[in-house]
Amino acid sequence: MGAVMTRTDKGNGEKRFAIGRFPGFATTSWLFLLYLYVPIVLLIIFSFNSSRSATIWHGFSLEWYLKAFANDDVQRAAINSLIVAFSATAVGTVVAVFAALVLARGGRFRGRGVSYGILMLPMTMPEIVTAVATLSFFTALHLEIGLGRVVLAHTVFCIPFAFLPIRARLQGMGTTLEQAAHDLYADEWRTFRHITLPLLMPGIISGAMLSFIISIDDFIITLMVAPAGSTTLPLYIYGMVRMGVTPEVNALSTVMLAISLLFVSMSYLIGRKTKSGRKPKAPTP
Amino acid sequence: MRILQNASTRRALGLAPALGIIGIFMVVPIAIIIVFSFMKANPYGGVTPQFSLEAYIQFLFERNLMDKLVFNSAYLRIFGRSFVLALVTTVLCLLIGFPTAYYMSRQPPRRKNLMVFLVTIPFWTNLLIRAYCWILLLRDTGLINNFLIKIGLIHEPLTMLYTNFAIFLGLVYTHIPFMVLPIYARVEKLDFSLFEAAHDLYASRRQLMRHVILPLAMPGVIAGSLLVFVPCLGDFIIPNLLGGGKHLMIGSLIQLQFGGSRNWPFGSAVALILMAIVLLAMMVYVWGPGRKMRLEGES
């Protein structure tokens, strides 16, 4: 460090910074962030529009939110979405904890790579392939279990999303405290209950939240698998979007956006508090 | 509890629920569509349990009036179209994503984290909603046209929705976080002293990029390209919603076979061909040219 001396009057840090600087990169980045957020922000603004038209601003109003919430179909779809997301998240997270404990703490063993590959399979497979395969499976077995189909299909892809943050947390937290507990004659169960589990909690919560969002936002798999009468919110929104742009869709979409934002931010904040600072990232094959 | 003392039993018990669920509800279903793809279609949906290669033959040939097989490129063209669409999207994502990822990695820590967070958020929001945002902006009476007419720049609305422009805008919009994040993860770890060394050796900016940064960032670029290309290839929501569904994509072709036009064996065969392409791409990633560099990078 500090080997490079400044050649200008500016501070050393700034000069070092200028070496790897490329013209246009900063502009590209900020334009990119605008591109990413302007559409979302406009959607949110226009969800509070009082006009019947979805794209001409008249004045502030909560009318469309009230209309959307009062709609029976929306309520049913929202309840279905919540049932599916809660069930799939609960099951997915619990099994992911066990899998993560084995894969992060179980040492090297035969079948480790294959197990990891299978766990990541739902993330790497194109969604449409998973969707039609799951539909074929349910049809071949004549499994007419209504919303249960959606729950099962969602549980599958929730597992890897819950698994990754939990494993990252396990890898980051080390085993010192567990060894200390062991030295103090805590048996295995008590070590797990009082040391491992509390330390692992941020990872578990973070993983559960990500599973929840992935489930509540899922569209393609739900579209193929859900039988009539098991409409979820994304399916309902899709039906409305195909009919055209309405202020109700703006309001509903904003609610869904808000849920996602809330959960990701919380997951991020909980994950950031951990020393390892590993954040769940986009899936990698 | 005695049985739990055995390490391998414990491992098996720990992994069993997760692998069991994925195995039964994902691996078995894929095996089922493999079987389906070798069966005859039932005109009322589903399959007739009779061995047949019809689904795979149908992909390349059609029967003419004399019941002879004639080469039919219709489905290959659909694959070609999806391929081109995914490829162009990948290149566009790379052109915007690389400078962004690089710029992010050179920011002070606080801003760096904030920017990563900002890039990650859209990934966690609903795909439909992100597409819908663009419908709101692009349609004839959309926000952009309204604005341009209001300030008097144009008098007739520009047709933007249901064009190729809209499709690419939407595809890049929904997939670009997958490009930025892996490149960022890679560039962020680069040793700055290499840049200084290049600078001291009188490398121009261009040479620094060409001979130092790009080669080192390559594993991230490859990973990002794959993460954009693969989902794009199977995507049909954006082409349907923003492109008006004027042209069939692989994804919509598969979906249609299980819905309206009902040829499950053919749908299964197309799904398996898509899956094979994806697996091939993965294998190239795992064992291909990037491998050596990744290993070096990790050591």
Assembly category: heterodimer
Secondary-structure content class of chain B: mainly alpha
Span of the ends, CA to CA of chain B? 42 Å
* Strand/helix succession of chain A: HHHHHHHHHHHH
Tell me the number of helical segments of chain B per DSSP (H or I, 4 or more residues long): 13
Please list the strands of the largest sheet of chain B in the order they lie side by side.
Answer: 1-2
The helicity of chain B comes to: over 70%
Radius of gyration of chain B: 24 Å
Number of helical stretches of at least 4 residues of chain A = 12
Number of strands of chain A: 0
**Morphology of chain B:** globular
What is the strand content of chain A? under 5%
Got a strand count of chain B?
A: 4
Sequence stretches where pLDDT stays below 50 over 5 or more residues of chain B: none
Give the terminus-to-terminus CA distance of chain A.
36 Å
Helix content of chain A: over 70%
Largest interface: A-B, 98 and 104 residues
